[in-house]
Design goal:
With 498 residues, the chain is of the alpha+beta class. It has 13 helices and 22 strands. The structure holds zinc ion.
Length: 498
């Protein structure tokens, strides 16, 4: 997600008080590291569509539980968020006796005295479009649910009541849907049965059900499936071009990819944004589409795809609060650099994108005086400019300065982080690796950024790397590449090997 409203997990109860996509995914993926000893599934769900705009869900729990959750994104019109779409919820013990299941707030239901449930049933109303989920501080329908064309789209955590403390063992979902329908999801399917790899994998993915057909591209051994709402059909060729090119360019930069299957949804909204999940993401594009919007949504698409390596992929922080300058800021810089390398940005757009980074950091100094990069996420909304602008400027300067000596050095540093991301990074392990790969430059640069250098100092530092910058006040920034007599004048570190 690229808005400033990426959230944090409020408690171990998996309630989110603000939307959390990539950050949440960062937490949620942690369970994937635990090698679970799974003798059987932990749960099996069944989904049917008995009536327009309502699904029937039933589930049997091989591992009985006393607490179930949806994610919780409260908005003014729905103070209890997604849980208000659950009706007729019933719980049963192993003998089939009904067990009361009480709503306890923040998207959670519990049994009295922790009585164990062996099965449940409920109806899930597909009424989410009655509410705007995308206001200030809220996640947007891309992280909740929406209905477009003939498709019902949901985040798993808005649809399935889940015990997020179940071990990471398989969960089956049997879909009993109208004959013309198909399920578009990242979960492997056999016939009508999808299998998620565990509770977080079920909750932290998006899927759709309906008669609309998704498109699948297999490129470079990786399979990308994507479904586009009819209101965005004019964007389809551009989306396809980006998906045909970017994954390979990114994989080449990172020295590989740890994913082979990914599912993406696109639908219209009044603003452009996206949410990244474990093996899927959803984007809402401001409609009607126009040429200017293409600039923002193609960058968002590039950014969310980059998260497959950095942020939602293996490279992430044990405490994401300390590492979002890397997982968001570096992601944003790398999106610009590699989209340039892939031929999607010309000199003018590249200059504008770099000017945006500088402006963002300038605003960060006003919004977040005295805040250091490693603590910026503590007050994420306020420090958004520092996380994204400060993080991206750190990446740009590190790239420029390492590349001055060795054109591959920055790429090698990022590859090294990716290669050693077998477990989430503590801030100390991250900095040790970055400093080892950069001769201490990474730490020095971050310390310099934490002094909140003035625009004149930044301008001087950039000038040594072929970037002429000008500023006026705190909001006007201009970047030019020195005249080189050719069209393609960007400094070498921004162009990459191609
Ligand atoms: Zn992001």
């Amino acid at each position: 997600m690229i808005t400033r409203w990426e959230g944090v997990l409020k408690s171990a109860k998996k309630s989110l008080f603000i939307a959390g996509s990539v950050l949440a995914a960062t937490f949620l993926n942690a369970s994937a590291f635990a090698a679970e000893n799974c003798a059987s599934n932990v749960a099996s769900y069944k989904v049917s569509f008995p009536a327009e705009d309502a699904f029937s869900v039933s589930a049997e729990f091989q591992q009985p539980t006393s607490r179930l959750d949806l994610f919780w994104f409260p908005v003014a019109a729905r103070p209890e968020g997604q849980s208000e779409s659950v009706v007729d919820l019933k719980g049963f013990d192993a003998d089939g006796n009904e067990v009361p299941l009480n709503y306890v707030g923040e998207g959670g239901w519990e049994t009295p005295e922790k009585k164990k449930l062996s099965s449940i049933s409920y109806r899930l109303l597909a009424d989410h479009d009655e509410v705007n989920w995308g206001g200030v501080g809220a996640p947007g329908k891309d992280e909740v649910a929406t209905h477009f064309d003939s498709s019902y789209f949901f985040a798993g955590h808005a649809f399935f009541l889940i015990d997020y403390e179940w071990p990471a063992c398989a969960i089956d979902v049997t879909f009993d849907l109208p004959a013309a329908w198909s399920v578009t999801s990242p979960w492997p399917m056999q016939g009508d049965v999808a299998t998620a790899s565990g509770p977080w994998n079920l909750g932290q993915n998006v899927f759709s059900m309906g008669a609309d057909k998704a498109i699948t591209n297999s490129i470079g051994g990786r399979e990308l499936t994507w479904l586009v709402a009819d209101s965005l059909k004019d964007a389809k060729p551009d989306i396809e071009r980006l998906f045909k090119v970017l994954p390979d360019v990114y994989a080449e930069f990172w020295g590989g990819a740890d994913w082979d299957k990914y599912t993406v949804f696109f639908f219209g909204d009044d603003m452009t944004d996206g949410g990244a999940f474990q093996d899927s993401f959803a984007m809402r594009l401001a409609t009607p589409l126009n040429e200017a919007e293409k600039v923002t949504w193609s960058h968002t698409l590039g950014h969310e795809t980059m998260h497959l390596w950095n942020g939602a992929g293996p490279l992430r922080g044990e405490n994401p609060d300390q590492t979002n300058w890397l997982t968001e800021g570096f992601t944003d810089y790398l999106t610009i650099k590699l989209m340039r390398q892939a031929g999607f940005l010309d000199d003018n757009m590249l200059q504008q994108r770099i000017a945006n980074i500088l402006r963002r950091f300038e605003i960060a100094k006003l919004m977040s005086p005295d805040v250091k990069l490693f603590e910026a996420t503590k007050r994420r909304g306020e420090n958004w400019f520092l996380i994204y602008g400060g993080g991206a400027l750190t990446a740009l300067l590190l790239d420029a300065e390492l590349s001055a000596e060795d054109p591959d050095a920055f790429r090698n540093l990022m590859r090294d982080l990716y290669e050693h991301a077998d477990k989430p990074y503590t801030i100390d392990r991250l900095m040790d690796r970055m400093n080892a790969a950069s001769g201490g430059k990474a730490g020095e640069l971050i310390a310099w950024m934490d002094t909140h250098p003035g625009a004149a100092e930044i301008r001087e530092r950039l000038a040594g790397h072929g970037l002429q910058a000008a500023f006026f006040g705190v909001d006007e920034f201009y970047v030019r590449f020195p005249e080189c007599g050719r069209r393609d004048c960007a400094p070498g570190f921004l162009k990459g090997p191609r």
